[in-house]
Design a protein that fits this description.
The complex is a heterodimer. Chain A is an alpha/beta fold. Chain A contains 7 helices and 17 strands. By secondary structure, chain B is α/β, with parallel strands linked by helices. In chain B, 41% of the residues lie in helices and 14% in strands. In chain B, the strands form 3 sheets. Chain B has a 7-stranded mixed β-sheet with strand order 1-7-6-5-4-2-3, sandwiched between helices. A 3-stranded antiparallel β-sheet of chain B has the order 8-9-12. Classes of the chains: A alpha/beta, B alpha/beta.
């Protein structure tokens, strides 16, 4: 049985390839070409220099070197069209709609565990292995594939994987789930991988420099589309005008900096009303919410929600999950009622439900 | 089966090159004995290439390959105020060179092609302007094998008194080439596409054709291409030209190509450019509802090398500009795979390829959702 390893040229996926090779598996290395960093380089203040980023020639070179050292066949597959359609475009549209998107989850749902898995199976591999920090195992008692938190809590990537279907989980391996990042670096050294000390990637892979506003400007200009005018009023929770803003996409809920308002106590973005082009600002306590609604919910450890379920809910990647009662609204829509109010519920982010180490499911915050 | 990417070196070519790699390492420009031996070998090869193209030895300029030959022809010919005509299905060596001319303010017309990938001579004639200084059209397309009407265009160019460059890289060694019957002023060929070594090519430059060198340096190649001659490579290309197949070999390739197409008829929905006159070795097949890139990888893992589209800098496949210029939809272009045979391809190779492709296409279709 052949396993396709999703290789990014980084330490994690390279170590996965080396581990599986050492275990004697037949491997094929695959790297997805998702975005051409040169497309927007230098436009609208985007950085000219795009070396060392995702999909850069350097990363492909690193991945190719690893494949060569391990003597496994290696290919770069071109999924740029799908990436633009399913990740870039929704990313831009979400911001323009006043929401805060998570491109990594979109990429997992539409590219890594969909298109890449399809490519892998088409070329004769039965499974794909990735360098995600997560665990994945079959529970015969429930007859379901279960996604679990990894050994390294600090590297936990399950939040970004809530969209995986049972079919996808059945064909996916997360060999790093039982290791910590320092252990993985040590393994990389042991396997003689020269990139063992390569730094972790941090920012959004297609936005070198991390300035998403400039990216949106540059992308729309390249597409020949005008940036929609979403400039409008900054208002208080009570509705009084506090000033002007230059577009809803420049704000995210909980944001404190860049409001341009003088105030005795710190002000935060409380909510964004795209239709009225209003950005609501207020004090920190006004960020607290008792509940949220999530749409397009994907269930993992359970087949569906009958009525209610107690679970811990994580509302952003860096968030300590909060206890809540999940209530069914529809098959793929739930309301989460928190025991204690949570800060900055942000539409466009994911709400992921946990019970102990297991991911129950998750959806997009409305 | 990817001969249009590169071909194996013939044993007799390797044999001819061997002394110049191991023993006779003279610089062909040196005045001493070693240099003279190298010079003599280069000139023998020049004679062989001249016979191969039907030109004079002095009209043969050795280069580093097809790309350099195309670049030398284009940049060596066009100057400010000129107008250049080419086609949408040219190799990137021509298209990118012409795009650079356009960036420099030189006027460029890139002519469309028909569904078979063939440009019309009439379109070329209509595109002519008083300031047209160069027409560049390929002889055979690398992706479909389609033959362009270079003789007709040669007549049009002659009538108009316009310089004519032919990129014959994919024709050389597959069909006879005669620079006089084409009536071109410049013609590019490449060693490794015709069982010669990689890294060597030729630009035929008709006597009296003024060409601005693109390299500054020594007076090599009659001041048309500076740089120490790649003696072993040139000797190899000369030998490959001597060995180039004629007549019968060409028919054999066409029979194998037809066998392949017939064998895959029930799996493939179209032969791209199949209605055009073609070089005998190339077959570009469209497999409905199949991702060509995945098919190429699947076949490679089974030991069959074919290709889809062009490789971008990362090594991923880019959709083929040739197929798009022929009016194929992006999905049709993505579903297309090129098979290209060479003189060492056997009937068994073809039958094995048919079996592998049939099995993979069936498998990929079962899993496929490429057209969703």
């Amino acid at each position: 049985m052949t396993i396709a390893v999703a290789m990014s040229g980084g330490v994690d996926s390279s170590t996965v390839a080396a581990m599986l090779k050492a275990q004697g598996h037949d491997l094929v290395g695959l790297t997805m070409q998702l975005w051409n960093q040169r497309r927007l380089a230098g436009k609208d203040g985007m950085p000219e220099q795009v070396q060392g980023r995702c999909c850069s020639i350097d990363d492909v070179y690193d991945a190719r070197r690893v494949a060569e050292v391990l003597s496994i066949p290696y290919y770069v597959v071109n999924h740029q069209d799908r990436f633009e359609r399913d990740v870039i475009r929704p990313f831009v549209d979400e911001y323009l709609a006043g929401r805060t998107p998570i491109p990594c989850s979109l990429c997992n749902n539409h590219l890594k565990f969909d298109q890449l898995l399809l490519t892998a199976r088409q070329i004769g591999a039965d499974q794909i292995a990735t360098g995600h920090y997560a665990r994945n195992e079959y529970d015969p008692a429930r007859g379901r594939w279960i996604l679990k938190r990894p050994a390294d809590a600090a590297k936990d990537q399950t939040y970004f994987l809530f969209g995986l279907t049972q079919e996808q989980l059945a064909h996916t391996l997360f060999p790093l789930g039982g290791f910590t990042k320092p252990e993985v670096r040590a393994l990389a050294l042991e396997f003689g991988l020269l990139l063992a000390n390569k730094p972790d990637s941090q920012e959004i892979c297609f936005i070198p420099g991390g300035d998403y506003k400039r990216f949106i400007d540059a992308y729309l200009e390249e597409q020949g589309e005008a940036l929609p005018d979403t400039a409008g009023e900054l208002v208080s929770v009570g509705g009084q005008s506090r000033g002007r803003h230059d577009g809803v996409h420049n704000f995210t809920i909980g944001q404190r900096k860049g409001l341009g308002l003088a105030s005795p106590s710190p002000l935060y973005v409380i909510s964004i009303d795209r239709d009225r082009k209003q950005v609501v600002v207020g004090e920190e306590k006004e960020l607290l919410r008792d509940s949220l609604r999530a749409r397009d919910v994907n269930w993992i450890s359970i087949p569906g929600l009958q009525s209610e379920l107690r679970a811990q809910v994580k509302i952003r990647h860096r968030h300590d999950p909060a206890w809540a009662t999940l209530r069914r609204i529809a098959d793929d829509e739930v309301e989460a009622i928190f025991d204690e109010p949570v800060r900055a519920v942000t539409p466009g982010q994911a709400a992921v439900f946990y019970l102990d180490d297991e991911v129950v499911g998750g959806g997009w915050i409305v | 089966m990817d001969a249009n990417a590169t071909t194996p070196l013939l044993p007799e070519v390797a044999e001819a090159m061997r002394p110049f790699l191991l023993e006779q390492f003279g610089n062909a420009s040196s005045i001493h004995q070693e240099g003279q031996l190298a010079r003599a070998a280069v000139e023998r090869a020049r004679g062989s290439v001249a016979r191969f193209l039907g030109c004079r030895p002095a009209e043969v300029v050795f280069t580093s390959g097809g790309t350099e030959s195309d670049n030398l022809a284009i940049f060596g010919s066009a100057k400010q105020g000129d107008h250049v005509i080419t086609t949408a299905v040219e190799h990137h060596a021509v298209l990118q060179a012409v795009a650079r001319l356009a960036e420099r303010g030189i006027s460029v017309d890139v002519l469309p092609v028909d569904r078979q990938g063939v440009v019309s001579g009439e379109d070329v004639r209509r595109a002519l302007r008083p300031d047209t200084s160069l027409i560049s059209v390929m002889m055979a397309n690398n992706e479909t094998g389609a033959l362009e009407p270079v003789q007709e265009i040669g007549c049009i160019a002659a009538e108009a008194g316009v310089r004519f460059h032919v990129d014959a890289v994919q024709a050389a060694g597959k069909i006879p080439i005669s620079v006089d019957s084409i009536g071109c002023h410049l013609l590019s060929i490449s060693g490794h596409k015709m069982h010669g070594p990689q890294g060597v090519g030729v630009l035929f430059v008709r006597r009296g054709t003024r060409l601005e060198p693109i390299f500054a340096g020594g007076a090599h190649e009659r001041q048309r291409r500076a740089g120490t001659e790649n003696v072993a490579g040139i000797v190899g290309l000369g030998k490959a030209a001597e060995c180039a197949i004629e007549g019968e070999g060409s028919v054999r390739l066409a029979i194998l190509r037809d066998r392949l197409e017939k064998g895959l008829q029930e799996y493939s929905c179209a032969v791209n450019g199949g209605q055009a006159l073609r070089v005998p070795n190339t077959s570009n097949l469209q497999f409905d509802a199949v991702d060509g890139e995945a098919l190429v990888i699947a076949l490679d893992l089974k030991g069959l090398a074919v290709s889809s589209g062009a490789a971008c800098s990362s090594g991923a496949s880019e959709p083929s500009h040739v197929l798009e210029a022929m009016g194929l939809t992006p999905n049709q272009a993505r579903s297309s795979v090129r098979f290209s045979l060479h003189r060492q391809t056997t009937e068994e190779d073809v039958d094995r390829a048919i079996a592998l492709v049939a099995a993979q296409v069936t498998r990929v279709r079962e899993l496929s959702a490429v057209v969703r």
